[in-house]
Write a structure and sequence with these properties.
The chain has helices at 20-33, 45-48; strands at residues 57-61, 65-67, 78-82, 88-90, 101-106, 112-114, 127-128, 135-136, 141-148, 153-160. With 161 residues, the protein is an alpha/beta fold. The longest helix has 14 residues, at 20-33. It starts with 19 loop residues before the first helix and ends with a strand.
Length: 161
């Protein structure tokens, strides 16, 4: 967005008579209204795409048995799960945001189960497995989920393992 047709405002006093806080406040106000940099370069498909997808990676140490409302690091899209020495189950994932994607990678040899619509977790943390039944990996496995605010649930998109 270019501002070629606009001119700088005329200040009632020379700039050196204003204090630093005034200009800091002015810049803050401008930044709240304008989020795009002024550029004469056209926006193209190439400027909006990347050759690879980079997702924040986090880790989670699971425990044996069942965990309700499991809380993963908010910034992590890819979650590397380790820790349990026996089968483990997640009945829900805490605090989803519409369109948020979580890739759960069970790096252990223990079976990981995602419970379908389990009442053991808060309603908006529950998981829809799309099979009507719980999903269980055979040891190491991957599940990809997306949060749907319309359904108020995490929806399993894909599983392997």
């Amino acid at each position: 967005m270019a501002f070629d047709s606009y001119t700088a405002p005329v200040l009632p006093f020379p700039p050196n008579l204003y204090n630093k806080e005034y200009f800091t406040s002015l810049i803050g106000t401008i930044n709240r209204y304008f989020r795009q940099a002024d550029s004469k370069a056209p926006i193209t498909v190439d400027s909006l795409t990347a050759p690879f997808l980079k997702m924040p990676i986090g880790s989670y140490t699971a425990t044996n048995g069942t965990t309700n409302n499991v809380s993963f690091t908010r910034q992590s899209s890819f979650v590397h799960i380790s820790g349990p020495t026996a089968a483990f189950t997640f009945t829900g994932i805490y605090k989803g945001v519409n369109g948020e994607i979580k890739i759960l990678f069970n790096s252990t040899s223990q079976n990981m189960t995602l419970s379908n619509q389990s009442a053991s977790s808060d309603a908006d943390n529950r998981i829809i497995t799309n099979g009507g039944a719980d999903w269980t990996s055979s040891g190491s496995g991957v599940a990809i989920l997306i949060y749907s605010v319309i359904d108020g649930r995490w929806v399993v998109l894909s599983t392997k393992g």
